[in-house]
Amino acid sequence: MEYLESQQVIHRDVAARNCLISGSDVCKISDFGLSMLGQLHKEKQMIKVPVRFLAPETLTHATYSSKSDVWSYGVLMFEVFSDGAIPYKEVKTLKDVRKKVIQGLRLKPPPDMPEEDAAIMMRCFETDPEARTSFALLKQDYKKCQASKLERLVGFFKEKAEA
């Protein structure tokens, strides 16, 4: 996703259903049927879209950008860490999902989601797209997260070795 962002490709359908895992456990994004080239795209007429994955600015103004893809990535994180739960399942209709997201409803991190991942997910849900994180910054967050986990693991084994 960071590469797509750097090439100004807006995917517009970031979701677990469009992720493929290779034999070497590399996640690849697929289904570029809705993708657009450019920094910002305004849809003249809303086509059939996955409402549960859309950012507030997309729901209100039909605008797409890499920042709306970041929002969708946050929803994807919810999907993955909740074992495929439907986002906003408690909201009865898609019309109500749209209304409530515009009013400020946000997905909560699933109970078993590690704290670091939950913090990353919540950064994806910043209402203002200009203030929302980017995929480049998310990549940095993941690197810090991995380093922190490795540091704790090394510390754990050092403690055990000294005991």
Automatic annotation (TrEMBL):
One of its GO terms (molecular function) is transmembrane receptor protein tyrosine kinase activity. Gene3D superfamilies: Transferase(Phosphotransferase) domain 1. InterPro entries: Kinase-like_dom_sf, Prot_kinase_dom, RTK, Ser-Thr/Tyr_kinase_cat_dom, Tyr_kinase_AS, Tyr_kinase_cat_dom. It holds the Pfam family PK_Tyr_Ser-Thr. Residues 1-157 form the Protein kinase domain. PANTHER family: TYROSINE-PROTEIN KINASE RECEPTOR (PTHR24416), TYROSINE-PROTEIN KINASE TRANSMEMBRANE RECEPTOR ROR (PTHR24416:SF611). This is Protein kinase domain-containing protein. One of its GO terms (biological process) is cell surface receptor protein tyrosine kinase signaling pathway. It comes from Cylicostephanus goldi. GO terms for cellular component: plasma membrane; receptor complex.
